[in-house]
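Predict the 3D structure for this chain.
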Amino acid sequence: MKKNKKPKIQYSRSEVLSGYAFCAVWLVGFMVFTLYPIIQTLIFSFSNVSVQTGHIETESVGFSNYVYALSQDATFQQGLKDYAIKLVLYVPVITVVSLILAMLLNSKLKGTGFFRTVFFLPVIITSGPVMSIFIEEGVASFPGVDKLIDFESLAATVPAFLVDALQFLTSEFIMILWFSGIQILVFMTGLQKMDKNMYEAAQIDGASKWEMFWKLTLPALNPTIVLNVVFTVVMQSVFSLNPVITQITDLMNKTGTGAGYGYSSALAWIYFIVMAALLGLSVLVFKKHERRVKR
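Done. Predicted structure below.
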């Protein structure tokens, strides 16, 4: 039996031209302000760049900028290591915390509108300079956390990496809450689109709230979780106070070995590749979990 083909939508010539005109604005802007600078930085990364009056001189140096960055630049290597560790800790914690807060704010309680505003407000005010001031004043961490938890005694019985992770999370927990505003809103949107009939049927069958969360809510929110993971990785990677970005920016206007526009471009491309690899790994982990749940 032949399947019924969907009828093709016919557009008039003026509608087609209007569509291309709207797309052309974005394409021209993308090619001029995004694609061209990307290609230019790739060329610079294989060159020694000298900025002269009225022009830029480039001298090809091959892969020497990349080799120096990966073999001799200890500051950049340590920055990449700290960035990777921070992502490994930040992404799951921000995802879990934002999901819990979204479920609480989505409940039918008094004052939820006020608390939604409170949790989203940091997204508006947490620019680089503001965050820098907060960190200097100690607002980004719990006051007196070292007095509440004896990390030295804990290190005697718990592996060192777990102690370091716990110490990092306790000192950065306020910042984690600040970085969770968008994720909370995305989770709330996903929760509000859930089919209530599904929960009513599960409740009739005798399912507890815990079972409904694991068997209904969490699998249905898996695409939303992937979206929030992507957003969190990108947000942390492009944050202006990121030490790797700070180093790349500082070295642009300096001269000598391990400095200049060419070397900064090489660092930026290495950083981009590492970020893309971590982003792909994060998405792959959650996609595998999504396929496992569907089975």
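DSSP finds 14 helices and two strands in the chain.
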